[in-house]
Amino acid sequence: MNKYTKPVLVASKCLGFDHCRYNGAVINDDYVAALKSEVDFITVCPEVEIGLGVPRNPIRIARQNNNKVLYQPATGKYFTDQMKNFSSKFLNSLDKVDGFILKFKSPSCALYDAKIYSSIDPQSMGEKGSGFFGEAVIEKFPHHPKIDEGRLKNFTIRENFYINIFCLAEFNKIRLSPRINDLVNFHTRNKLLFLAKNEKITRIMGSIVANHPQYTADVVFELYQTHLWEIINSLPKFNHWINTMLHAFGGISKHLNAQERKYFLDAVEEYRDERIPLSVPLSLLQSWAIRFNLEYLLHQTFLKPFPSKLVEISDSGKGRNH
Length: 322
Known about the structure:
The chain is globular. The protein has helices at residues 30-35, 46-49, 80-92, 132-140, 155-175, 180-197, 199-210, 217-232, 238-250, 258-272, 279-291, 295-298, and strands spanning 8-12, 40-44, 60-64, 67-72, 77-78, 99-102, 114-117, 126-129, 146-148. The strands form two sheets. The chain has a five-stranded mixed beta sheet. A four-stranded parallel beta sheet has the order 2-1-6-9, with helices on both faces. It is α/β, with parallel strands linked by helices. It folds into two domains: 8-152, no CATH class; 154-322, no CATH class.
């Protein structure tokens, strides 16, 4: 049975944790709720933290003198410096973090899609960009997994986020007391997962783990982490996942009858056609690895890279492109 290191995630407090939106509401998100038993959350509402009440007059991002400002139209007040100072102080205070789930379209928390007005004029045009806190997250933690609750609804993006946070949490755990044997074990168990994401980088990581130059453990971990960031930030390509699944299937197929082999290959095609999520064919592979006691596969995180509880059975294959 897989044991997972609990990731530490920073989340917008309004996403099911507190009634702190500008209108006093809370956003009840099923995916965030499902994560509560599987991760350790650090929650934050930057707008409340800089002294804005609940409820409060909305704030917006606007351009002024070629700079972005945080402006409250109802009062004419600016909160730019307060938000920048809070964001810096909060993010610098984090001892350990494996990822972020932030409120989309928020002038504070948005990662990509906050509305940025061309001026403080209420009728001015807008463009999309990062909120002030979201932008600080991107600058301070450029490689860490980051997602908003809107993108959580796309199962391909969501599955990749889950894979990344649980992988990173495990690495960060062994990084605390770096030992080469632990890194060898980590790389071995994640090898198929990494191959599915980026074969070239995986080969480089394997060479680093082999440590032919006889570097110290600290140096090896540092070199390895540089490429792990690349793996984590590699956009998953479904054909790579398929190739790796078929590779794993090659060691199982001799134990199966013709109907079972066809059933699996049909499931792979359904995944290719975006009708089922990745977790479905992976579950088939895992069940057979258990049935035939295939030790190598059973130790591969590829088969079950995150807790089963997080698999949403009702997911359809919509929206692979992102």
